[in-house]
Recover the amino acids of this structure.
């Protein structure tokens, strides 16, 4: 047996490169056994992170589009309200203009009536002067006796 052990040791001592390669393979096997599951877990996490990132970007984009739609709707409602306000203002201005025109027309009629009234008052004043003069003459003839 001793001789077999010596031959075995002599056989191994002649091939240090083989021992080195076997040792290196053993180390690599241990490293692979330890690292491979970690690597797979890392890749899985990376894929999950990428998926979450894509989902977050999509959510942000969706929220942005919803906000844009909301802002567009608010702008449209504001424009509709502004158009309604403008229409009411134009209508009120037209009514005001029509009222001013009617008032101007009424003032012209009243000025005309005032002028007619002034003319009548002036004629009546002349008639009153004439009547007063005649009454004065009648009074002078009847009471004073002058002719």
């Amino acid at each position: 047996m001793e001789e077999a052990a010596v031959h075995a040791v002599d056989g191994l001592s002649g091939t240090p490169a083989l021992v080195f390669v076997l040792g290196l393979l053993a180390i690599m096997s241990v490293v692979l056994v330890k690292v491979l599951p970690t690597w797979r877990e890392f890749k899985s996490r990376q894929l999950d992170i990428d998926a979450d990132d894509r989902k977050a970007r999509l959510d942000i984009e969706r929220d942005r589009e919803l906000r844009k739609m909301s802002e567009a709707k608010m702008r449209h409602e504001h424009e509709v309200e502004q158009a309604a306000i403008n229409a009411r203002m134009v209508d009120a201005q037209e009514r005001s203009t029509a009222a001013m025109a009617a008032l101007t027309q009424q003032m012209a009629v009243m000025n005309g009536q005032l002028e007619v009234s002034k003319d009548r008052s002036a004629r009546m004043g002349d008639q009153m002067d004439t009547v007063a003069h005649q009454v004065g003459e009648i009074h002078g003839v009847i009471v004073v006796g002058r002719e």
